[in-house]
Amino acid sequence: MEIKVNGSWCEFPDDTTVADVLDAKGAARQGVAVAVNGEVVPRGAWAGSVVPKGASIDVLTAVQGG
Predict the structure, then answer these.
(1) pTM higher than 0.85 for the full model?
(2) 7 in a domain, yes or no?
(3) What phi and psi values does residue 21 have, to the nearest 5 degrees?
(4) What confidence tier does 66 reach under pLDDT thresholds 50, 70, 90?
(5) Residue 66 forms part of a structural domain
(6) Pairing between strand 2-5 and 8-11?
(7) Which of 16, 23, 38, 39, CA to CA, is 20 to 30 A from 61?
(8) CATH number at residue 42
């Protein structure tokens, strides 16, 4: 199935979770927030949150600065 990750379409197997997407993209687990279709997914729910076909996922990294 296709999922849009940070604006780019990617192919993933059915029943892919948020954690699977992060692993496939090599995203860090610290300092990261994830939203699926505009809804923030709590870190504790990443492993159990199945991403629906055609979903848009935004992986945001916290950056220190001023």
Answers:
(1) yes
(2) yes
(3) -65, -45
(4) low
(5) no
(6) antiparallel
(7) 16
(8) 3.10.20.30
